[in-house]
Design a protein that fits this description.
By secondary structure, this protein is of the alpha/beta class. Helices cover 49% and strands 17% of the residues. Helix 3 crosses helix 4, helix 5 packs across helix 7 and helix 9 packs across helix 10. The longest helix is centred in the N-terminal third of the chain and has 17 residues. The structure holds D-glutamic acid (DGL).
Length: 269
């Protein structure tokens, strides 16, 4: 009994290439306010979206080892690119539960599409990997997926340009082809895109469902912890933040994502 209590109180480890994964952390902490969380942002190596599978996997392995050294009870890969490239490998070498963000968003979108036409937007790495398409096809092979890499979205969000005419125009250019395919659901397959959600909605209208993988993955984390009897049931969750570079910048931008919850950020090698 004592042992289980201790295990439940261990933190959830969440990592991303930078601060974008705070959208996932925000969803997890809202759904499970009791949970302690350790967040790692690989700010020395961001962006992952333009890098190779090998290099992103090397980073993901190091970060997972770091989180395990902090005694986390499970790992959430908040980064879509790292989930697409490294989850399968990490599952083989990590002996605690580990999940990425791709499956949750894929299953949810497969469940809600009516005309079986889903659009996926993400970084170059995520789109090239076809990770979302593969997951969606596992669920229902009759669903058609149409993908589009949107490399300008991450810098737009990082600059704080989440709305306005320029952002709307850029979204229109990227999403035009998907709209021509008559999709009824679109997956925001990148940590940063939930911050563009309102503007994306303005561009695509009310008829297309927007699936934000951050909320979908939070639900999956909760289900998994419940199944394994590992939910922390009481007490307000405590948060710790680690980065590989520029803790001050992380704190400043990160607080926009997380609503001023970041007080202390430690830099680690
Ligand atoms: N975190 C990345 C993702 O979700 C976006 C930023 C990057 O390219 O590192 O794919």
């Amino acid at each position: 009994m004592q042992e289980k209590k201790t295990l439940n109180n261990k933190p959830i480890g969440i990592f991303d290439s930078g601060f974008g994964g705070l959208t996932v952390m925000s969803a997890v902490s809202k759904l499970m306010p009791n949970e302690n969380i350790i967040y790692f942002g690989d700010t020395a190596h961001v962006p992952y979206g333009t890098k190779s599978k090998k290099i992103v996997t090397d980073f993901a392995v190091e970060i997972s080892k770091f989180l395990i050294s902090k005694d986390v009870k499970m790992i959430v890969i908040a980064c879509n690119t790292a989930s697409a490239f490294s989850l399968d490998y990490l599952k083989k070498i990590v002996n605690i539960p580990i999940i990425g963000v791709i499956k949750a968003g894929s299953v949810l979108s497969a469940q809600i599409t009516k005309n079986k036409k889903i659009g996926v937007i993400g970084t170059e790495g995520t789109i090239k990997s076809k990770a979302y398409e593969k997951e969606i096809k596992k669920y229902d092979k009759n669903i058609n997926c149409f993908s589009k890499a949107c490399p300008l979205f991450v810098p737009l969000v990082e600059e704080g340009w989440c709305d306005g005419k320029i952002t709307e125009d850029i979204i229109k250019v990227y999403i035009k082809d998907l709209l021509n395919k008559n999709i009824d659901t679109i997956i925001l397959g990148c940590t940063h895109y939930p911050l563009l959600k309102k503007t994306i909605k303005k561009v695509i209208g009310d008829k297309i469902n927007i699936v934000d993988s951050a909320s979908a993955v939070a639900l999956r984390v909760q289900t998994l912890l419940k199944e394994k009897c590992m939910l922390k049931k009481a007490g307000k969750g405590k948060y710790k933040f680690f980065v590989s570079d520029s803790p001050e910048k992380f704190k400043a931008i990160g607080n926009k994502f997380l609503g001023n919850k970041i007080q202390n950020v430690k830099k680690v090698k």
